[in-house]
């Protein structure tokens, strides 16, 4: 991980480099108008072995805080952090103008003209008796039938541990998950240009989701009656520091329906049953350079855990000589669309991967892949030609549990405890439901993909060894992209 000291050293070396000042002056900028950042550290071959090198690129902050929209295109420095020297300087973008600052200031107070939309009246959710959850010892969250440990982590951002759900019939807490967190965010940009090829971020591993989590804004980031939690982290020299109010916990009601059913009165039943959906949310927001990631772990009273990640912030743009699409000789040849005058939004991906250490009713857990297959009816058997059949496959090796999602070969994924049965004999378990997913199209030998080979599969389960005698624990460690956990198929 790059420490703040590493970044400070790199920027200090870069900003004092005379060639940078000359390049800035050629673009009509003074040194005070220049802001520099350290993009992805990356790894691109043996020439970097044994060296701690980082790229540095710069922007114009003249007239706007949104310097990301004003790149000094073509200018890249490679800094050796240990030797504190610039080992390579390139500036191939002298003919590319710096995009204008007009209209780039995103601060609400600095908007000169109001938006041409009808104003929204104030809205507020009231809790006259206060929130229904409690936080004990600063970390143990209790709400409805849920109890879990919540902490801030310098690398992962937010970690949920020892999640337990009370049995609705006995009231006895039952374990669901030992630990869950976002393990990595892989963001490769798709431009082989000398000044862009290395932009293949590992936001958690290189910068830290907790280290980049700023204080949440009350009433805007989190609603009224939220509970706020600080992060206590270690700086580069071991000195502790506080990241204040980086996590919030709150109850959410957005007018959604938890469950409902009505009966048409033709059969004598006049029933309209509906229950509102109130959930508990643990939230954090990390500002990793130009992008802001908002993580929500949402707990429902029916036992479901729903995790979402929202993306906000600014684009990372590439400078160009073109001001309109008509000036571009080939839009398809560009690395992305023209998003503003002299600015291209480079095509890129965001792969967000989660580590789920499941403990369904203790540690004797098994991963099950349920394939939905088409069966054809026999001649004369039925007016139907085909139907679906669920075929269960218990993973016996890690290779059995490396899953690539396929639209026309659908599967469901379950973590079960075969030793804990319901009164009907079904094993207790949870279903893992992948959310929005994508497959990396990069070559498997491409340096960014070598570092992020975990994205070659959308679900990857591994066993954990827990004793010095190499006894295999039946615990499942699941790595999966955006997901939700559902107990709908039988926690009882």
Automatic annotation (TrEMBL):
The active site is at 203 (proton acceptor), 291 (schiff-base intermediate with substrate). Its EC number is 1.4.3.-. Keywords: Copper, Metal-binding, Oxidoreductase, TPQ. Transmembrane segments: none annotated. The keyword 4Fe-4S does not apply. Residues 2-99 form the Copper amine oxidase N3-terminal domain. The modification 2',4',5'-topaquinone is found at residue 291. Residues 124-464 form the Copper amine oxidase catalytic domain. Topaquinone (TPQ) is generated by copper-dependent autoxidation of a specific tyrosyl residue. One of its GO terms (biological process) is amine metabolic process. One of its GO terms (molecular function) is copper ion binding. Contains 1 topaquinone per subunit. Belongs to the copper/topaquinone oxidase family. This is Amine oxidase. It comes from Salix purpurea.
